[in-house]
Amino acid sequence: METDTITAISTPIGEGAIAIVRLSGPEAISITNQLYKGKDLGEVDSHTIHYGKIIDPETEEVAEEVMVSVMRAPKTFTREDVVEINCHGGMVSVNRVLEIVLSKGARLAEPGEFTKRAFLHGRIDLSQAEAVMDLIRAKTDKAMSVALKQMDGRLSGLIQRLRQELLETVAHVEVNIDYPEYDDVEEMSHEMMRQKTKEVNKEIVNLLEVAKQGKILREGLATAIIGRPNVGKSSLMNALVQENKAIVTEIPGTTRDIIEEYVNVRGVPLRLVDTAGIRETEDIVEKIGVERSRQVLKESDLILYVLNYNEALTDEDRKLFEAIQGLEYIVIINKTDLGQKLDLNEVRNLAENNPVVTTSLIEEEGINELEAAIAKTFFAGDIDTGDLTYVSNVRHIQLLKQAKQALEDAVNGLEMGMPLDIVQIDVTRTWEFLGEIIGDTASDSLIDQLFSQFCLGK
Fold first, then answer.
1. Per-residue confidence (pLDDT) for residue 292, from 0 to 100
2. Which of 19, 135, 137, 293 has its CA 20 to 30 A from that of 213?
3. pLDDT-above-70 percentage for the chain
4. pLDDT by residue (tens digit) across 245-289?
5. pLDDT band for position 55 (50/70/90)?
6. Residue 12, preceding bond cis, omega within 30 degrees?
7. How would you label 213-241 residue by residue, b for 16+ Cβ within 10 Å and e otherwise?
8. What domains does the chain contain, in order, with CATH numbers?
9. What is the 3-state secondary structure (H, E, C) of the chain?
10. CA 197 to CA 184: how far, in whole Å?
């Protein structure tokens, strides 16, 4: 376990009112004391903040005016002594303070090293550590709520309980086998194992059932806006974003590239992609945009297919319906303020069971109905972040699937009458897969890889 003192800038790069240089480690307070002019930080109470100045050791001049927070172990995020130097938020000033701290013996922290130390010191488990980054990257209040609950240990507590149940079952069965007191001990052990594996498997299945929703809340829905040129795709994006991000003109083919924007639709984060109109074209620049649009279509979680109420359905429109068959999509009939030339019955037949929404974006009509259709498509119209334990992390979802498969192998083995010591191998594998979620059975290389994806200074 690391015993040196690390430091990094913990606030975003750029200008701001305040920037923070954080230190963590056994020498955090003494290093700061060497460059700080003010109260003796070695004598102040824990979790207090103090005004003073940072002195440049080379020139012995004042380098910065600061507020210094002192937090002593173990009641800190890393369970080490932690010091946070609050300075002015300019790039020059905060980097100067960091350089002075480094010159006094601190080491520049690696990405995520503060959180890694919290994990290594038992302050948080691996799933809680990953929730820290989920919280930072949350795009909506719902995503933030899910991350906060994971940070509080809701998922960890559930996983630990399931692992304990499996462990107790295996131990109980082994005792019965090694020290049988009854003639029917083997039958009793089989029944106990069968009941417990089915109970745990049911809880894992429940977690996986809401995992898709959790993943959406965490990462957002990759949402492609498609349709022939000049049907109102860019206007739709602007209406959802509520500001002009795309160029809107009367000239077909104006959007020649892919425009991306995150929007919050009733708690569902959408990563909106406004694609170039998919059509045959000789314009080289536009042709590149069209090819990119086809690729985006394949990678999308949701497709918003825009049609023009004022134009009859074309062969291009019908080809687009064919291209998105089997995918999750919503049909948007735009420009209802103009005269009707579109056959709505044909559109509904082609759309099959997918939602069809009418809009007049120029008059700001139909947006609420569209947002309701999006929420209903993925969350049955409601998102419950109160009682549900959402699994949103791809790594967690994969491990739960592996745990589920191992348990199903155990159940199948029991049904086939396999010896209990063979069945226990699959139950133990389940216990290990669940342990990887919270870090109990995770390898050092996996832990290093996960924390390397964190922000510097977190």
1. 55
2. 293
3. 79
4. 433 334 343 333 445 677 777 767 787 765 544 444 444 444 444
5. very high
6. no
7. bbbbbbbbbbbbbbbbbbbbbbbbbbbbb
8. 6-109 (3.30.1360.120), 137-210+391-441 (1.20.120.430), 219-379 (3.40.50.300)
9. CCCCCEEEECCCCCCEEEEEEEEECCCHHHHHHHHEECCCCCCCCCCEEEEEEEECCCCCCEEEEEEEEEECCCCCCCCCCEEEEEEEECHHHHHHHHHHHHHCCCEECCCCHHHHHHHHCCCCCHHHHHHHHHHHHCCCHHHHHHHHHHHCCHHHHHHHHHHHHHHHHHHHHHHHHHCCCCCCHHHHHHHHHHHHHHHHHHHHHHHHHCHHHHHHHHHCEEEEEECCCCCCHHHHHHHHHCCCCCCCCCCCCCCCCCEEEEEEECCEEEEEEECCCCCCCCCHHHHHHHHHHHHHHHHCCEEEEEEECCCCCCHHHHHHHHHCCCCCEEEEEECCCCCCCCCHHHHHHHHCCCCEEECEHHHCECHHHHHHHHHHHHHCCCCCCCCCCCCCCHHHHHHHHHHHHHHHHHHHHHHCCCCHHHHHHHHHHHHHHHHHHHCCCCCHHHHHHHHHCCCCCC
10. 20
What is the tens place of the pLDDT at every residue in 176-233?
666 555 545 556 677 888 888 889 999 998 888 777 777 777 777 788 888 887 888 8
Q: What is the mean pLDDT of residues 341-359?
A: 89
Residues 345, 350, 356, CA angle at the centre, nearest 5°? Answer: 70
Task: Provide the pLDDT for residue 457.
Answer: 66
The set of residues, in sequence order, having a beta carbon less than 8 Å from that of 141 and lying 6+ positions away, is 264, 267
Fill in the amino acid letter for 203.
E
